[in-house]
Amino acid sequence: MKEPTERIDIRANVRNTSPAVVAATQNSTRTALRIRGDVVKAFGEERWQRLRQAGHDLRLHSLTHLDRYLPLLEQKVTAAGGRVHWASDAEEANRIVLEIANRHRVRSIVKSKSMVSEEIGLNHALEAGEIRAYETDLGEFIVQLAGQKPSHITAPALHMTKEEIAELFREKLGVDARPIPEELAELARQRLRKEFLGAGMGISGGNFLIAETGTLLIVTNEGNGRMSTTLPPVHVAVVGIEKVIPDWESAAVLLKLLARSTSGSKITAYNTCITGVREGGPKEFHLVLLDNGRSRILADGIAREALLCIRCGACMNICPVYNNVGGHAYGAVYQGPIGAMLTPLLMGTRIAGGLPFASTLCGACAEFCPVMIPIPEILLHLRRRFVEGDAFEGSSVPGLLKAAAWAGRRVMGSPSLYRLAGSMGRTLQAPFRRGDWLPSLPSPLNRWTSVRPFPAFKGNFRAWWRNRTAAQSAEERSHE
Amino acid sequence: METVQLFVTCMAENLLPDVLQKMVGLLERLGVRCEFPEDQTCCGQPFFNSGFQSEGREIARRWMRAFADTVGPIVAPSGSCVEFVKHRYPVMFPEGSEERALAVRTSARVRELSQFLVHDLKITDVGASFPHRVACHSPCHLTRGLGVRTEQQSLLRAVRGLNLITLNESETCCGFGGIFSVVYPEVSQAMVEAKVKNIDASGADVVVVSEPGCLVNIRGSLTKMKSSVKAMHLVDILAQGGGA
C-alpha cells in the first residue's frame, strides 16, 4: 500500500463506504466475538486475566530491553546460517528485499500474510522492480485479486461476502465459482499451487522473534505460511523490531493469547518455527529487521505501549466504531483502535490526527486486548499531540479552535461566567425551541442536530436550590 | 445523619435539572443531608478528552477547590464525570505537588449515585414503585470505567412492580462519546440507531440511561426515530412512589 501523504479524511471515507461493507463487517466480527467468548470462557475468566497480565508484562519487558534481545537475536540467527539486515525505514527495507531478489534473478514471489509488508508498501516496490508478488493467504489473495486493500489486520477480506468473492473469482480467474467457502478456498489453492512451485523467493512477516534461539515464529491457519517459507529457494522475513521476545516460555504465553483472541481457537493450526538455514529448507534465510519509526515511538513513555500489540485484531472486532465504518474508513494499513494509535504514530498527526478522535473512548478494546494496551489512554495522548502539540510534534489545529477552547476555559473556569452562559443559553434558545427540544441549530451545532434534537435548556437548578434552602430556613425559623 | 456534596455536573445542571431535583429528593428521603458547593462548574473532562489538556487541567483545578473545604462523599448522577475525577485527577498534576495531594483526596470521595446507594448507604430497596417493563443501558464509563456493572440492576429489581427486561448489547456504546458525536456525526448516528433498535426490540416501556451524555443522545434519538419507549435516568424511577 502506498503511504497516504494527505490528511486521512474519515468522514469522506465513511461516505464512500457501502452499507453492504458495514453489514459484512458486522457479520464477520459477530462470529469472531462469539467463538472468542466461548474459548475464553472455557479457559476461565480469572486465569485469562492472569494470562493477559503476564502477556503485557513480558511484552513490555521485551520492548524496554530491545538493546539486550535484538543483538542476541542477530547473533543466534547468524550462528544458524541466517543473515540479518537492519532497515531504518520502509525505503531501506524495500531496497534490501529487492536486492536479494535481483541477486537471485527472482521474477515471482509467494508471500505469506504480513502486515509489515503492507506498512512498507513492499508489493508496490517489487512491482516497480518488475517482480510479481502473489499473496497466498486466502483473504490477502482475494483482496489482491480485487485490487483492494485489507480491511482488517487478521481477516483482510472480512468486508466481502462469499457471493462477492465467487463473482470476483468468476471474473478474474475465469472459473465457475459458487459462493461456497470450501469450494472457493479450493479454487484459490489450485490457482496458487503453480505459484508456490514456480516462485524464486518466499516472503513472510513474523509473529514473534525468539531471541534465545534466533527463531522466527509464524502462525497461520491455512498452511500457506509454511509453504511460502519452505518451498522457494530463498526466504526473506521482514519483521518489526518490536516483535522480539526473550524466550520460548514467553512464546508459550503469547501464542495462547494470540490464538484465542484472533480465531477463538486454543492454538493456531500452523505454528512454523524457523531457525536460520536448515536442511531441506530454503538455501538462504534473510531476516530484515525494520524500525520505520518504532524507536521513535519507544521514546514516548505513554504511546510506547502501542508497540506491545501482537496483531490479533480483537480490538477491531469489539470496536463499535470499526463495526459501523469498516476497515477502509481508517485510510491506512492498520485499522480499528490499533490503527487509530499506530497510524498517527507512524505517519504523524498532521496526516492521521483525525484518527484518535474516531473513538468514543468506550474502553471495550482495552478490555479485550490480550496484552492489555491502554488504548483509550494512548488515544487521549495523541488527541493532545494533535491539539496542543508535545515534545514529538507541533499542534495541527487552527488557531480559531484554540481561541474557542481558551474562551471555553474562561467561562467554565469562572462560576459567574458559567452561570451567565447558562442563562444566555436559556434566552438564546427561544427561536429554535419546539417544546422540549431544539430540533435544528445553526452550524457548527448542526453537527449534533443533524443526527438528533438537542434538549431545550429547562429549569434552573441553582434557583430551585436557593428557593428551597430559603424556604427551609424560613420554616425552621417559624418552628423556633 | 450522613452529609453528601452534590456534584451536579455541567451537563445535568443545564440540560437535566429535573434529574438533580429528584436526586436531592431521593437522598433526603433516605435520610441523607445534601449540600451544594455553588462554585462548581465543569470537571474539565470535555476539554481534556478533546485534546485541550491544559484547559482541562485548569478547570479541574478550580473544580477541586470548590469542594476542598467540604466533607463527605461527593455524589453525581453520572459515572463519566465521577470516573474522570476518580481516575484522571490524581495523575493530572505533578507528583509531589499540593494539587496532586488534593486531587488524590478528592478522587477518593467521588461516587456515582448507584454506587453511593449500594455501597455507602448499603440500600438496594429505596421504597420506589414503578409498574412498567424496564430495560437498562450500561453506560461505558460507568461499567468499564468504574466497574459498576450490577448496582443499577440491584436497585431496579427492588422497585415494586418493575419488570426488568434484558437489553441486547446493553454494554455496547450508544455513540455519544463527547466530542466524538460532533466530529463524526454520521458514525455517532449509526451507533445510536443500533442502540435504539435494540431498545425497541427489547419490548420495554422504559429504558434506563443513567448518564447525562448517553441520556441526551438516546432520548433525542428515540424521539427522532419515533420510538414509543421512554428514556429515563435511574433517579427518575427511584424517586417514584416514594415512601421508604
Structure description:
The complex is a heterodimer of chains A (480) and B (244). Chain A has 480 residues and is an alpha/beta fold. Chain A has 2 domains: 10-296, NagB/RpiA/CoA transferase-like (Rossmann fold, 3-Layer(aba) Sandwich); 400-479, no CATH class. In chain A, 52% of the residues lie in helices and 11% in strands. Chain A contains 23 helices and 12 strands. In chain A, strand 5 (208-210) and strand 6 (215-220) form a beta hairpin. Chain B folds into 2 domains: 3-119, no CATH class; 124-238, Rossmann fold, CATH 3.40.50. Chain B contains 13 helices and 8 strands. Chain B has helices spanning 10-15, 17-29, 45-49, 53-68, 79-92, 98-107, 113-120, 140-145, 151-157, 180-183, 185-202, 212-224, 234-238; strands at 3-6, 33-35, 74-76, 110-112, 133-136, 163-165, 206-208, 230-232. In chain B, the strands form 2 sheets. A 4-stranded parallel β-sheet of chain B has the order 2-1-3-4, with helices on both faces. The model of chain B has no long low-confidence stretch (mean pLDDT 96).
Biggest β-sheet: strands ordered side by side in the sheet of chain A: 1-10-7-4-2-3
By DSSP (H or I, 4+ residues per run), the number of helices of chain A equals 23
Number of domains of chain B: 2
Which two protein chains have the largest interface (Cβ within 8 Å of the partner's Cβ), and how many residues from each? A-B, 57 and 65 residues
Order of strands in the sheet with the most strands of chain B?
Answer: 2-1-3-4
Which oligomerization state do the chains in this entry correspond to? Answer: heterodimer
The portion of residues assigned to helices of chain B is 40-55%
Beta content of chain B comes to 5-15%
The major sheet of chain B is characterized as: 4 strands, parallel
